[in-house]
Automatic annotation (TrEMBL):
This is Diguanylate cyclase/phosphodiesterase. Pfam families: EAL, GGDEF. It comes from Shimia isoporae. NCBIfam families: GGDEF (TIGR00254). InterPro entries: Cyclic-di-GMP_PDE-like, EAL_dom, EAL_sf, GGDEF_dom, Nucleotide_cyclase, Rev_trsase/Diguanyl_cyclase. One of its GO terms (molecular function) is cyclic-guanylate-specific phosphodiesterase activity.
Length: 517
């Protein structure tokens, strides 16, 4: 048992003890100290007392100011959340006694999907407002002792106060809670915005020696893993994730050589008419059919192909496979009016593009109207360069259809749309999500459809995920729909069976329609 005097000394050493000494005990003792100095050293003592005793009071504000500056440096000016370094310090303190008392904790890395694009499309001010709203939402989903920080432009870190019962189930529930609150509509001045987020988390029980750095690394690794599977995913850190990261790096260098190996294939996603329900086309989406890792989405290889200058080859490959598919559908008795191929900005600058497209059409004896070219709105926004304009015009002159992809995200001016021979706009998924329930979304779609009608353009809604969104898009006058609610992208081999099933489903519906009409 510590003695009473030891306890008093200890309590005086603590921060509160020192504050007590500085504010109360020391000033009270000044007269006594002055007398003691005078008694011991005479006039010289008096001089010393007058010079030295006020010093602690003069220096205290300086110390307080530097502490305030330090505190300020710990916080993010925009969201008011801690910064990552400050979070790490607090986590270390929190975790020091973790295993002694049998508690566990979890760290979450939360990343807003596509935030750079949101900033590009809506501007800095809106992006900052969105971050502030999301920071508040995360904070209000936490208890007072949990710690949250902003890390990087559009990511957050959360570390929970250690508790005895922090297990996988509880962590998943927490992640779901963060995700649900982040993905709710964000009301802004003009309209609401929807964002999705990817979350990775690391449980301290999964690490041999949990430390702040290890927990954050684990959570961030899990978050990167979640992002690889698309948007709005949640992943838990597992010990083999480190190995996967190494294997992924290998995959990327392999991707650079993969086009030659015939592993990149065109997959097909159907587009249907909201009027008749009939198939009006398919969009071609590239998939890497990897012998060990399964089917990989473009996000895992497009960057590498771009960096190694192979986008042209990809476009050729996709066009070839797209037109082969049209030929095969025709031969099997299925009429698919048009197949759409995506072209990156760089590829649209190729001086030989038009000839190559013409050659592929001729080789398959197909009319040019059977091929559509999808050009991103961002490519023609502002002042599209001469080569792009020349190529797009020449492709349209051949008779191919030009679709403006991701419409509503790239700020193309109406005059640039008019200048180019665009036939149809593909309304971006961000306007379609929740359109059945959100009146702001409905107003945006109604405005886009009216604009398209006035400009004599057709419309297609992307990312239609369910029957309710499909019905609303149809009601709002959008001519075509595409999305998981109709079908996911599929390999060529599955397309004929899908069209047969679709036709069978459509048959009775059309008959009912005809009887009642
Ligand atoms: P995109 O052109 O906007 O293609 C639509 C993307 O949305 C596809 O992703 C598709 O799988 C996905 N999607 C379709 N319906 C839904 C839905 O209902 N919900 C959700 N959440 N997503 C849906 P994917 O295949 O991963 O392609 C991503 C992007 O990669 C494409 O976006 C396109 O810009 C690019 N891309 C794909 N293939 C090619 C290609 O051959 N060449 C070029 N240059 N770019 C390509
Ligand atoms: Ca597209
Ligand atoms: Ca698109």
């Amino acid at each position: 048992m510590p003695s009473r005097s030891v306890k008093i000394v200890n309590s005086l050493k603590s921060a509160r003890g020192q504050e007590f000494l500085r504010r109360r005990a020391f000033p009270a003792a000044i007269p006594f100290l002055t007398l003691a100095f005078w008694a011991a050293f005479g006039e010289f003592g008096l001089l010393m007392a007058a010079t030295l005793l006020p010093l602690p009071f003069l220096l205290a504000p300086l110390k307080a100011a530097s502490q305030a500056e330090k505190d300020e440096a710990d916080f993010d000016g925009l969201t008011g959340l801690l910064l990552q370094t400050a979070l790490e310090r607090r986590m270390d303190a929190q975790m020091a006694h973790l295993t002694d008392v049998g508690n566990a904790t979890a760290t979450f890395s939360i990343k807003i999907d596509g935030f750079a694009r949101l900033r590009e499309n809506h501007g800095d001010q809106t992006a900052e407002e969105v971050l502030r709203v999301l920071a508040n939402r995360i904070r209000s989903a936490l208890r007072s002792k949990d710690i949250v920080a902003r890390s990087g432009d559009s990511a957050f870190l959360v570390s929970l106060d250690p508790v005895p019962n922090m297990d996988l189930e509880t962590a998943i529930q927490m992640a779901n809670r963060f995700q649900a609150s982040i993905e709710e509509s964000i009301p802004l001045q003009m309209a609401s915005i929807y964002v999705t987020c990817s979350i990775g988390f690391c449980l301290s029980s999964r690490l041999n020696r949990p430390s702040a750095t290890a927990m954050i690394q684990g959570a961030e690794m899990a978050m990167s893993e979640a992002r690889l599977s698309g948007t709005s995913n949640i992943r838990a850190y597992t010990a083999d994730m480190g190995r996967k990261v190494i294997s992924r790096r290998k995959t990327q260098s392999e991707a650079a050589r993969t086009l030659q190996k015939d592993q990149i294939k065109a997959w097909f996603q159907p587009q249907i008419s909201t009027d008749t329900g009939e198939v009006t086309g398919f969009e071609v989406l590239a998939r890497w059919e990897h012998p060990e890792r399964g089917i990989l989405a473009p996000v895992q290889f497009l960057d590498v192909l771009n960096q190694t200058g192979q986008m042209g080859e990809l476009a050729d490959l996709m066009t070839r496979q797209a037109l082969n598919a049209v030929r095969a559908w025709d031969d099997a008795g299925f009429h698919v009016p048009c197949v759409g191929v995506n072209f990156a900005g760089d590829e649209l600058r190729s001086p030989t593009l038009v000839e190559r497209i013409q050659w592929e059409l001729d080789r398959n004896e197909l009319d040019a109207s059977r091929l559509g070219i999808e050009v991103l709105e961002s490519v023609i926004a502002g002042a599209p360069d001469d080569m792009v304009v020349r190529n797009v015009e020449a492709i349209a002159k051949l008779g191919c259809n030009i679709d403006l992809d991701d419409f509503g995200t790239g700020h193309a001016s109406i005059s640039s749309i008019r200048r180019l021979p665009v036939k149809r706009i593909k309304i971006d998924r961000s306007f379609v999500t929740n359109v059945d329930r959100d009146t702001d979304q409905q107003k945006m779609i109604a405005a886009i459809v009216t604009l398209a009608e006035r400009l004599d353009l057709s419309t297609l809604a992307e990312g239609v995920e369910n029957a309710a969104e499909h019905a609303m898009m149809s009601q709002l006058g959008c001519a075509h729909v595409q999305g998981f609610g109709i079908a996911r992208p599929m390999p060529f081999e599955d397309t004929i069976k899908w069209m047969e099933d679709h036709k069978a489903k459509l048959g009775p519906a059309i008959q009912i329609g005809q009887k009642s009409g």
